[in-house]
Amino acid sequence: MAFQKPSHTFTKIHLKGLRTNSLHILFVLSFTVFINTLSFAQELPKNNPNIPPAQKTDTLVVARDSLNIVVDSLLNKPVNTKPIDSTQQDSVKQEGFLKDIVTYTAKDYVAINQKKQQIKLFNEAEVLYEDMEITAGVIVIDYSKNLVYAGRLKDSTGYSQKPVFKQGANVIEPDSIIFNTDSRKALIFNSVTEQSGGTVLAERTKRENDSVYFISKGKFTTSENLDDPEYYILMNRAKIVPNKKIVTGMSQMYIYDVPTPIAIPFAYFPMSRKQTSGIIFPSFGEDTGNDRGYFLQNGGYYFAISDHVDLAVLGDYYTNGSYGLRLESSYATRYKYRGNVSFRYENLLNSERGFPDFRQSTIYNIRWSHTQDAKANPNSRFSASVNLGSSQYFQQSINQVNQANTLTNTLASSVSWSKTFQGEPQVNLNVTASHTQNTNTESINLTLPTVQASMTRVFPFAPKSGVKKGAIQNINFQVNTRGEYRINTTDSLFGKSEMFDDALAGMRHSIPLTTNFKIFNHFSVSTNANFEETWTLKTIRRDDIFQGESSVTRDVNGFDRFLTYNFGASIGTTIYGMYDFQKEGKNPKIQAIRHVMRPTLSYSVTPAFDQYYETYDVIDADGTTVDQVEYTRFENSLFGRPGNRYSSNVGLAIGNNFEAKVRSKDSTETEPKKIFLLNNLNLATSYDLAADSLNWSPLRVTGNTQILNKKMSINFGMTLNPYALDSNNNIINTFNINNGGSLFRLTSANLNISYTLNNNSFSGKDDEEKPDEDAERRAATANARTDDLFGVSQDFADQRLTDRDREKKEEDNNEYYNYKIPWNLRLAYAANYTNTRRENRISSNSLMFSGDVELSPRWSVGVSSGYDFLNQGFTFTQLRFERDLLSWRMNFTWIPFGNQQSWNFFIGIKSNLLKDLKYDQRRQPDRNLGN
User: Fold this and answer.
1) Would residue 405 be called left, alpha or beta, if left means φ above 0 and alpha means ψ between -120 and 50 degrees?
2) Which of 142, 473, 655, 731 has a CA-to-CA distance to 421 between 20 and 30 Å?
3) Is 91 exposed, middle or buried (0-12, 13-18, 19+ CB in 10 A)?
4) Which of 184, 204, 236 is the C-terminal boundary of a domain?
5) How far apart (Å, rounded) are the C-alpha atoms in residues 165 and 186?
6) pTM of the prediction?
7) Is position 893 within any domain?
8) Are 33 and 132 within one domain?
9) What is the pLDDT of residues 213-243, one digit of tens each?
């Protein structure tokens, strides 16, 4: 008997008037209600006497239930397979609730309750059924209801062995799960599911099938700490299609369980593991520095064209009418090539039309980077590195602050293709299109293209086998060809037909002939002869002029050529010197110093090619020729003009190298340690035998070395002139020592020092600094520097100030992080001295530095600045602050003074899945100050 609620009976009785003569009836009804409320029906056992049945043989065989057969197979019982009468077989096949063999194991025990039709697995239980796999502390299989229950183990320490439900590529880690093997539906409690970089934590999940889940009170986060996530999006209800999408109702963001005002009535999260097209949400703000008003920046659409190429279309819009457009595409084919291309265009308006400070400018920039896999084609290679555009792009762009390009004032591009033709001799062909641009003068130099072909060296007298010996066998020559089409134009004419008006075309063929041999076993002799022929398609003509007029050149179109040649020889040797400090019974720190000297004496002669020169007359008013001026029609040749002056030079050069052997600090080392004192110390000068005066050229001294465990690099150079100056500071053919001075007159000098320090520099560890691959990639993309001496380039279109994901550094045996604070410092000092005409001044004297300090494992600060000692002021300065907020990142950069004075604040989620959840605020530089 079922449990009955008597509420309706009570209601009818109390609302109905009763007579006093019905008291007995009321008592009986109340007693009946009491019995119905507190009593349960009981079934009495039937008195069935045990009467043995009569033993009869039945000719009719009854078919056994198929469900019992499956259960017996599940319990590993032998299955009775008696023949079934054909009249009892149904034409419709009836399947059991299990369609495949169930495999189960457990560490402690497997309990089978045949009466309840249940199987219980305890401790490290595992069930495998079709593509489903369940592991848990406790698993109960109820085959009477087609259910599988999985849960955790509970002991004195808490819960352990949470269930793990796997089906195909989907993995769910709940507290407990109930799975129906017939409908394949499931009810999941407190599940944790990873979905394409994000994690869904749900209190209750209903699995409809293997591709649809419904959740209630779910949390979506990209945090790694799932026990206490830094943030999550609370979804009241949601539908999940694994690896495809999440559709939610009312959703609200929580930060450390604190609700925020960020809430939306519905949301859609694409979860595809493949590239998918979608909207890129813009940033918004106000530009007060240039009066452009409110703006939307870097919004657009991403096109996932294919697995090999994509396209992002981004745009900006300001309320004063300014706008920008950017197209960015990346492409790659495995084992062949990869690259990216970017086009940026901005139409900028400062202030409003009609105001006196209104200005309009149009700027653009094109970048292209292409690299080919070295294994793609060993005989052919194509590469590209392009960075061209408006000269003022990096100074005026509203989406990028690239200090390297702003301060160096140069842009460069190169696109090249090379091909090797195998054979004997081998021929190399190279086609290059290059571009250089000075953003200060706005001059542009293009070569479209440069074609070079060269043949490997041929030794016509070399033996077919063995080593080449002597001058004859070492005679070799090669053939080189170079052709160019060069355009010199300006930023305002670039892209117009006028840029081709002064274009030059030419070709040069050269055949160098060389040989080398040794004399007296210690001297190496090398001789050479070089023949060059230059072709040009344009020459000039100068007509006679009257006295006081300037000569005017007339261009003559047509093919012309000239031939030049020169000869040379050199002899050199290597001299070794050793000074030993070791003495018997002593072990000095510096044990020996070795000096290696490489002197070289050379001679070269270049004839005068007067046959390519002619003259024009200068005529006075009477028609008399008063002067004849010599010129050559090849003055504007692409590869220069032929010389008309005989030259016979004797050159002298000495290279020096100084090394020291010092006692090692490690007592276990048996050999001394070799260090460099001076890597190079070179001296070079020459004497012109054919000159009538000033025969000696200035002595040039250069050198470099590395000290302090190769952390400090020093480069220096100076120019020493042996000739004196007159009272007008003009050089004269008199030695300076004979004019009351010293042997040489210092005319120029330069010194460059770079020093790199970090927290391990003074620890005695000889650690080799590894290159920053991310810095190199960023520098290659933005044509910037890798040492951050000019600051970190900021590309706001990438929605990040920096892309540098610092790896988590594990401190060995450090209980407190402050025991060892990671830091680095880069210093660069440069000084130049000029005294060519008695200026006696330092033309430049500056110190630049850049450093970063990690105050804690997630706090870092950095600065890039410098000081100009000549002008007594700080150079470009940038301050950087960065906070790693686990799933979030916060950046702040500040340029406190100068033409680029600005600041930028950014905070956003690291994950690409939710990168549009960000806050970006900045004050852009006032472009009026820079102009």
Assistant:
1) alpha
2) 473
3) exposed
4) 184
5) 10
6) 0.70
7) no
8) no
9) 898 888 888 888 888 888 899 988 888 887 7
